[in-house]
Amino acid sequence: MSDQERQAGGTGELTEEVDLVVVGLGPGGEALAQGAAEAGLSVVAVDKHLVGGECPYYGCIPTKMMVRGSDALAEVRRAPEVAGEASGTPDWSVVARRIRDEATSDWDDRAAADRLRDAGATVLHGTARLAGPGRVEVEGADGTTTTYRPRRGTVLNPGTRPSVPPVDGLAGTPYWTNREAVRATEVPRRLVVLGGGPIGCELAQVFARFGSEVTVVDHGPRLLGPDEPEAGELLGEVFADEGITVLHGASLIATRHDGSIFTSTVEVDGDTREVVSEALLVAAGRTPNLDDLGLDTVGLDPGARTVPVDDRMRVEGVEGLWAVGDVVGHGAWTHVSMYQQDVALADLLGRDGPPARYHAVPHVTFTDPEVAGVGMTEHAAREAGLPVQVGRSGLGSRGFTHGAGARGFVKVVADADRGVLVGATVVGPAGGEVLGLLALAVHAEVPLATLRSMVLAFPTFHRAIGTAVGDLA
Ligand SMILES: Cc1cc2nc3c(=O)[nH]c(=O)nc-3n(C[C@H](O)[C@H](O)[C@H](O)COP(=O)(O)OP(=O)(O)OC[C@H]3O[C@@H](n4cnc5c(N)ncnc54)[C@H](O)[C@@H]3O)c2cc1C
Ligand SMILES: NC(=O)c1ccc[n+]([C@@H]2O[C@H](COP(=O)([O-])OP(=O)(O)OC[C@H]3O[C@@H](n4cnc5c(N)ncnc54)[C@H](O)[C@@H]3O)[C@@H](O)[C@H]2O)c1
């Protein structure tokens, strides 16, 4: 207990003065709390679940272990076309064990919490809420409440939870979200996936390759709606070839569970059909954890989907409050949360540093082929009124030599007036790695003339970027 600690008048609650309170320890909040503590601030870091947030325990890391397993199986199945017979029997227990033991330590955050404590932060497991300007209440697991008065300020990093649409009969059934999917110990014989976004696509392909009969139900006209349309269309063809059924323009309108089997009613183009499955994964977007954060006590709207911030991650209109991560609405990816915490940390420590910019945010959906994008799509660039040029390429000589599994393309979007790329998409094996060069080009606004003068190694996948840039028209 600090020297400043004192009993709040008559309430039995403790009130403590500290430098900084971090509410929610997703990737951004955890790193920021550590950085602030290492810089000498007294930091209280609070999470109501696991230190590290969604990414290490239920998101990026365990799902990429699933993807690694399913990609290995796919390569074994491609062997006859490029190397000769090879055999591999899918064994989900290998994936489940890696997730439990290597990724999540059986969903135990002691190592992460200790790392923060070693840096000097006070780590609390509890629910934190704003309690008026300059005050944060933390309700501990034992029901006690402590009120903190942070001298420097408060950082919000509460993240999101799965959105669950109001489907008739769904509540009360043992449906999965990403949280249950990463804890699966068996592969369901049949799986319905609600949602054809990144979560739905990655997990649909994983479970299909491990033997599930998968049906994806999605509102939209193609998979991965916000990406370039060519990307979602190609991925749809790959899914069809792998035996995954995708229902577009479809809504799950009802489901029932008889103790072991889901029977789901899906409306597609005005018709209804029933789909039977052992598991039902809801991957239909995310809900920001802003509704129980006391935002109204500082004049903010608790019903909003995002917290408005400036380019230093300061919450607009509220002194001493910063926000980072999915809830600020500049991309729900770990690298964005981490980027923003750097900006916020510099600001709250009074250090110089560049403001947050979002013109070159990359993202990668780890399907096979990977779907990777940076900056604007062609549609977004046209909507922004830019004089747009587009260039395309297949995967070139490397795609040809690679053979089985080499499906994809490179698409680049340029601002003709400025002579720079404003966006790019790579679909293909290691598409996320190939994107790196394009992310640099968009970020640094490299002149097209400079890009055209590059020597690109033969025969690499990234050499297709040269062809796409040469195709700009
Ligand atoms: C299945 C899946 C796969 C993904 N794969 C990738 C990927 O490959 N690459 C990528 O970049 N991104 C991926 N993401 C997204 C990524 O997980 C998030 O963008 C990332 O976790 C950053 O989120 P965040 O920092 O906003 O907070 P989160 O990680 O959501 O953490 C927020 C934390 O705040 C806590 N909290 C909330 N409210 C309170 C409160 N009132 N008091 C105390 N604590 C509170 C929560 O318990 C949680 O620990 C994936 C997400 C999912 C679901
Ligand atoms: N590799 C990665 O970087 C990665 C992987 C997974 C998740 N994520 C992050 O997590 C976020 C959430 O992922 P997500 O896939 O849940 O959400 P999403 O919002 O990106 O996609 C949800 C999909 O579900 C569909 N949908 C929503 N409600 C529906 C309904 N009632 N019926 C039919 N279809 C419906 C939407 O049309 C959309 O295609 C992503 O946007 C991304 O930022 C990133």
Automatic annotation (TrEMBL):
The keyword Nucleotide-binding applies. InterPro entries: FAD/NAD-bd_sf (IPR036188), FAD/NAD-binding_dom (IPR023753), FAD/NAD-linked_Rdtase_dimer_sf (IPR016156), Pyr_nuc-diS_OxRdtase (IPR001100), Pyr_nucl-diS_OxRdtase_dimer (IPR004099). Residues 361-468 form the Pyridine nucleotide-disulphide oxidoreductase dimerisation domain. GO terms for molecular function: nucleotide binding; oxidoreductase activity. Residues 19-337 form the FAD/NAD(P)-binding domain. Belongs to the class-I pyridine nucleotide-disulfide oxidoreductase family. This is Pyruvate/2-oxoglutarate dehydrogenase complex dihydrolipoamide dehydrogenase (E3) component. It comes from Nocardioides perillae.
